[in-house]
Amino acid sequence: MTSTLVKSRLDSDSLTLLFKNLKSLYKTDTVDKERKDFIIEQVSKYGYLPYPFVKAQEELTPAETIIGIEEKLKINNIYNDDEFLFTADEISPVKRAGFTNSEWVKTEQHNIKLINLAGLGDGNKSKEPGKFIDWLKQLLILPAGNISKGVLGTTMYLIPFHPRDFGCAYLPLSSGVSPNLEDKILKKSLDLDAKEQVQLFLMLTQLAGHPVMYDVLPQTGRFSKIVLSSPWVARWFDVKELINKLDDDLNQIAENLKHEFHYGDVDYIKGLISKSLHGKHEFIHDHLRHIADRFEWELDQKRKWYSNEILSKHYQEAMHSRIQKIIANIIGKSEIDEIQEEEIENQNQVIGELIKLGLWPAPGGAWNSSGIPVFNKMSSEAGHPLFKHYDFEGNDVTHFANLDCQTPYYFVYLENGKLNEKVIDFYVKFLKKIQSDYNFDGFRVDHIDHVVDKYSENHHGQPMSYRAPRYVLGKANSEIKKSIPHFATLAEYMLWERFYREYHQDMSFDLLWGSDIVSQYLKNVSKIIYDNKDLEEYNLSVSEDMPALAILKTYNNQDGEFKAIDQYPGQLSAEGALFKWFKFKFLPGGKNAKRPVMYIDGDESFTKVGIEKVIGSEESMKRAKNREFFRKFDAINRFAMNNDLTRYGVAELYRNNDSNGFVSWYIRKDNEFSDDERLFIIANENAPTEIFRNYKEDDSLELINKTGEPVYNLEVQIPEGFNVELEYVLKKGSLEFVPKTDIKNISNNKLIFEKLKPSEYRIYSIKRI
Description:
By secondary structure, the protein is an alpha/beta fold. 36% of the residues lie in helices and 19% in strands. It has 23 helices and 32 strands. The strands form 10 sheets. A 9-stranded parallel sheet has the order 19-18-17-16-7-4-3-21-20. Helix 7 (132-141) links the parallel strand 3 (111-115) and strand 4 (155-158). It starts with a helix and ends with a strand.
């Protein structure tokens, strides 16, 4: 069944029939009335089922899940009396809400949740990847927005769901859907394949009120079907040719070195290095290491020369023709015909033939590499080629490289910095097709953190690395937005060197990833307020007809795959992690510094580790079961979503004491006309536990484990001209903060606290006298 047939199926009438068959398949009419009424009541009240995902997996049957989804569809006014009621133009909740641009994604209190479809199975019981019903459970528990306040339901941000190379989501083998995600029951009963199941799920997600964002890459898997069907989108190495040339050079180098070293030692080392070029690595004794080093230095000059030569446009065009002919011959097509991805049915055979001939796509590199990758030698047993990488000053940065298994697109002729328009057009069309196939509301663009710094552009602005140039990203964003005005784009850029203008104005990104992941230990209340002010300053500096830039507040359970980061909420303990969430929701930046919040699947139940594992392996994620954590996490979000001050206001620091952790701030309306009511927050921002990072003068890193202390005998002056009206409290077992007017800790217009525990906070409403 083709995607075209799916699209013709899924008008409102066809979806009505398909959903009816889904209900019948899972026998929703057999669900106990009391259970059914409970699910419907909860979804009707909150807009979603307020469960952590792990609880949904443990408790909900497929039939109960579908009943909950049905209610969620009803409250979004597109499903009634067992029928869907929408036009093709009304599938996206962004369009239904009346947005004509990307402002929806930049709204204060809007949430974005990172989700991995494969990770949505019950990882506490099995590694089996998540399937369709598991996905629906995630949709059912995905928090709603507040349309009356302009906040859409939580955006579902999906990492790549393509077939994976080495198990990694960011190494796609093709642009299709992984067969491991296919639900066999739906395939057999409803005749929906993996791609169609994903399309159906995403359509239901949007109809249930949630925008959908997808991770797209400026690179692909090493031998992906994209590369095999269109070899000219990549640079290629002929490693056999390179090895032959280097072997010849070894002989000349050896003859020269015999004037300096014993000829027997030179011949011995020459033999070992020649073997290493072919993937046979043998031990070199210390007393001969200096000769080997001389050989390698001389050979490196040749390696650089040949690699530059073979990656030049002239050589590449010849190689593209050669490779196209090889692949066409294997799949039985004419070498002049275009090859489609679907025609590469024997992918492993094609890859095997290319490897046998020594033909390998050129890889990426390190975060700080510039120029081309340089072929070094074959890995042990000649499994794959190894490369060296250099920065813009010629320094060897190979030890930073972790992208040699990716194939970046051939966007630039690196020998002269000129753009490869054919590949750029291919990439833009490729992104448009992905958007069209799944009706995405936005893209998050991966691996573009260093595209305009000194590692990627020279002082003339010419691109000089494997990364996607700013021109390419700007063109892709602009063209998609031209045809889909509400489309939103998020750049994975962590704010190094504050290139706001370049990403926002030159590349047309709406939203930046931000620096919270890499600097959790720095993000206290005053720093977050400073970040808000910095964004406001930038937005006030741009033209009035330029849409504002937003920067995410990123709450994540990064579990330490990258030891240079290794910061995540779990290190703060449960109460510290909740306070981090509270800060992100209760420190609004105001109308000129809107900052949505991103969090990760599993965060809601205090899952400390797991997301990195299921990004690197196509399996379900193990989850923590901290339901008390979820109750508080969910209540904080609900309060902030629905309160006018947290939604429309701006946070300002009132008092703080760095020596003991005490901090207070207020949230006021962001206008000059009315400031009669504020939220007043008092907290101990010491986390119960936290890892701080101290960089010494010699650039070495010291990790300091700190234990937070309570704040004792605290007296906080109420802001001048205001009285405390009430306190918002979250009672035991409750899902919602409630007002409390009987406040006993006030004396002489001061709030008195005998003790504030680490990460304890209090919320007061104050009114002008």
